[in-house]
Each structure stands twice: as C-alpha cells, then as structure tokens.
C-alpha cells in the first residue's frame, strides 16, 4: 500500500519508496506528500491565468512575453500572465496603470467565445472524474471525488494529478489543484504554489494552519468588513478561534457564525453540481465616454446579441435582464427587470435593456455598459409564443431564421438596423 508520507510523483505518478527529495523513477522534485493524502476527496481546480494561457497556447510567439488580456487604454485587466504579474500587473487593474507597471506587455483583446469553448472542454473532462462538479466560473470548479476509488481504481489525489497532466497534454494549458476535506480549505489550497500547483490541507492540521492567517482569507471578509474587524482589534484568524460563537454572533450577526465556523475549518457545504452558472453577460468599456442614445443603443444591441448567442450555445435561458453602467467617475449603476418567462432571444434582452437604459439617459457620461441575464433555467421553458403581442412572436421567428443564417455564414452575415454600419467604438471585456 502507498505510504502517504512518501507520496507519489506528480509527473510520472510513481509511488515513492522513501522520503527522498526527487522521484526515484524520473528524477523530478515535483512530489506530493501528506499524512492525509489518501483520505481527502474535496478538490478545487483553478486554471492558471486562464485567458492569457489560452492566448499563449494559440500563439507560441507570446509564450515568453508578458501578456495582458483586457480592453483599450481606458479598460481594465481581465487576466495577466505570470510574467506580467511579476511586474505588478493584477486583474481588475486599470489598463493605463498596468501598462505603466509593465510597458513591454502585449495587450490582447479578450475572446470570450474561445475561452467559453475551452472552459466547456475542461468541464466535460472534469465530469469524467465525478458527476459532482460545481463550477464557480469559466475557469474554476469544485469536485467531490468521494466514492470514486472503485471507478478509477485509484485515490482521488492520484486521479487529480493524472487529470492535471491530461489538461496540459490535451488542452495545452495548466491548472492548480487544492485538495482537502471541505470546500473552504480546498479553495485556499489551490492558490498555493501557482502555476501548476497541487497543495493539500488536512483536517488534523486545519486549526493550526489557519491560526496565523489574516481574516481576509475567510470567504465574505472583504476590505470593508476587514476594516470593521480591525477596528475591533481583530486581524488574524487565530483571534476568532479564541472567541466563542455567541460573542461573534452578538457582534456580527449571521456573519459572526460564519467567522466562528470557518476560522475552525468547519465547512459542511456540499459540492452542488446544479450551481453551474448564475448569470450570462457581456460588457464593454468605451474608448471615450458616451452619453447619447445614438451611441449607446447600437452597442447595447450588439452586446444583447452576444449574450443571446452564449445562452443558445449553452441551451439555457434567463428570466431577469440586468443592465450595468459605469459613469466616468467609476460609479456603478445596476438596473434589472424580471420577465414573465425565461428568454434566449437577443430581441427580448435588448428591448428590456433599452427600457432600463432610457431611464438613465440624463446627460451622464458613461465609460462602460453591460447587459446580461440571471435566474437561469433550461431552454425548454424559454420564449413561449406571445398571444397578446403577435409582433414579438414574429420577431422571435425572424431572429431564429437569422440564427440559422449566421450558423451557416458567420455572425456578420446578417446585421440589424441597430448595428449595421456603426463600426466598433468600444473595447469588449
């Protein structure tokens, strides 16, 4: 039987016979060892610098260069490769600051349709390991491999190492894996030793491991709440471990209960496969601030069509339309409206978004606009015939006919009057 303290090699998967620093079979130092290595089955998988990794895969000339995925000079960083991160570039950083930090970086416009396709490919490969896959975003997910040992004839730890190697060989990007007994610590573990990381946090070590960590490591503790805790003299998780549950709940309500439990590594949440997606959206940062309907409406229509394509490709629909705006002073406005039935149609998404947008057109200049849908469901329930608004039914039939043409001849084969001849004045995110 494998000795967990000797572990196995992550490159050749050979079980180790001693505590040597390198694999006795292939010589690599990439060994995985842990006292609970073969007892743990909850994993968090995170693709390393996903968007940038896909672009480097598709363009080998970028491989050794700092790459930033994002909009124009007024946009923000979606993803930065690890070379760019060494220079201080971070996700969500304004593009002008990113280029100040790393002026030699190659900036690549995001290609979300390509990233979604790769993400879906990886998701299908995850489902070959276990049906209990809970996607968190396009490039990360939780997996529960409990009970799969007989199926794979191997431990979850080794199955995950083999999976990471398969992703590199077949998809051409790398992933990092966190393995633990609960979701909270699996997520923390996956952030260690990136890229190509594989870290383990066991149950017996959890309390001691967390003790000296900052409170911001706990889910739900953002900058504002961390400032509140610091105002009360609480900076480290160990301080929470020294407090009883009733004291924390009295001070912070239900959040106090979360602080008590997670600070002790107590997390009973299951991996929920139905939590695949909460929303589908698209947004754009403008090169110059816009305030006029004549400028904003064509862009809204184009984004609505992009959201519609993603819904149709995923065979899903959404019931709530969400409009997002960001003013020139970076203040966000979010407006939403619930529909009577879920929709996949660009026409319904656009018309609902347009109604919300019209209420915001008061001369304010905007640097960003986005449109999306939430309250997702299966497409079978979407867009029933409208017996009252017969024109809506006709528009739906027209849109489906346009979809068939675009499938055959490309997305630009047919354009609506809203978008025809408007050009591209924005930088998509």
UniProtKB/TrEMBL annotation:
Site positions (Substrate discrimination): 51
Molecular-function GO terms, alphabetical: damaged DNA binding; DNA-directed DNA polymerase activity; magnesium ion binding
Coiled-coil segments on the chain, per record: none
Gene Ontology cellular-component annotations: cytosol
Reported cofactor(s): Mg(2+)
Annotated InterPro entries: DNA/RNA_pol_sf, DNA_pol_Y-fam_lit_finger_sf, DNA_pol_Y-fam_little_finger, DNA_polymerase-Y, DNApol_IV, IMS_HHH_1, Rev_trsase/Diguanyl_cyclase, UmuC
UniProt subcellular location: Cytoplasm
EC code(s) of this entry: 2.7.7.7
Keyword field contains Lipoprotein: no
GO biological process: DNA repair; DNA-templated DNA replication; error-prone translesion synthesis; SOS response
Annotated residues for binding of Mg(2+): 46, 139
Entry's transmembrane regions: none
Sequence similarity: Belongs to the DNA polymerase type-Y family.
Role noted for this protein: Poorly processive, error-prone DNA polymerase involved in untargeted mutagenesis. Copies undamaged DNA at stalled replication forks, which arise in vivo from mismatched or misaligned primer ends. These misaligned primers can be extended by PolIV. Exhibits no 3'-5' exonuclease (proofreading) activity. May be involved in translesional synthesis, in conjunction with the beta clamp from PolIII.
Protein name according to UniProt: DNA polymerase IV
Organism: Phyllobacterium leguminum
Lineage of producing organism: Bacteria, Pseudomonadati, Pseudomonadota, Alphaproteobacteria, Hyphomicrobiales
